[in-house]
Amino acid sequence: MAVLAEGASPARQARAIEWMHANPAEQVVQALANDLVDQLVLRAAEASGLAARLPVRVIQLLSARRMLVAVNVIRQEHVLGEACALLDEIGVEYVVFKGALVRQFLYAKPYLRPSADVDLLVPPGEVPRVARFFEQRGYDLTVQAHSDTHEVWLGRLGVGLDLHWSLLRPGRMRKDIAREIIEGRVRRGSLWGPSDTHLTVAMLVHPAITDYVTGRLISAVDLDLWLRKRQVRWDEVTHLLGRIGLRAAAWAMLFWTCSLFETPVPSEIWRELAPSMLRRRYLEFWLGLDPARLYGRVSWLARGAFSLALQDRVRDASRAVWTLARKERLSLPQASRM
């Protein structure tokens, strides 16, 4: 499936239109909503004149969702503003990342970039204090078994807030860079966010590892827009990727993004990030299978055969497996566990 968004090739657009006509309108809209691109597709279709070529029912359903999406974004921004104020109140430094941050400066309107939840990164040692303080202020605290090594969930007013103390699960990086990201934070409008280099690295490796690269189309849209609008310091990015041992993961994310869009990536960066020829062919094969969808059917296969191959070296993959087996969980007495 392709998206009708800025940067998509005419061939991709033609296939997307064909797909929309070949499937029930409700199924099409739900798939676009799951990928968080429904309003972006509608706006792009209206702006480019392609709306007349889309099924009428699809346009009607996408238009009907616009207010719902916009209200949800407003609610998220309210809770995010409140959460940032609470962190300032207790003197804890933080950064906002992922959708809640990038929609502030990559998209014409925030509702064009919805997000499933809001993501904050805080120093590892501050998590128990922060979680308890938020709970005292009326937030629901849940420690989820599948992610209690690097994040907890806080809920308020129907908004989910993921409180991270690591960018990825422990062991996936040679060196955890959470503190480095927070220390290098910069103001992005009213929010604290990662520096350009840290944000680029996060856009490359976070969806690659957590969403098996192809999990959500919006991650590719974010990356494409970011690389078009910013002068990325690729020397800093590739150096940091080498330090954390995830150049292959970044390559895979770039490869998938460029298969959807004509994303501007310097040729020397491809050479810098590319894994060996054999592994490159292997990853290309897996990307063609849509590993995120395969994960939904055979999770162990996607984890073992694809995700671990995104680590730069065998010992990086071994470390990831060993750390996961040890699984040092956050201890929060009386917190709800799921």
Describe the structure.
This protein is α/β, with parallel strands linked by helices and 338 residues long. It has one domain (10-337): Beta Polymerase, domain 2 (2-Layer Sandwich). It has 16 helices and eight strands. The strands form two sheets. The chain has a six-stranded mixed beta sheet with strand order 1-2-5-4-3-8. Helix 8 (196-210) runs antiparallel to helix 9 (217-229), helix 8 packs across helix 10 (234-244) and helix 14 packs across helix 15. The protein is globular. The mean pLDDT is 92.
Give a concise summary:
The chain is of the alpha/beta class.
Which runs of at least 5 residues are low in confidence (pLDDT < 50)?
Answer: none
CATH topology tier name: Beta Polymerase, domain 2
Strand content: 5-15%
Order of helices and strands: HHHHEHEHEEEHEEHHHHHHHHHE
Helical segment tally? 16
Largest sheet: 6 strands, mixed
Number of DSSP-assigned strands: 8
CATH architecture: 2-Layer Sandwich
Number of separate domains:
1
Helix content: 55-70%
**Shape field:** globular
Structural class: alpha/beta
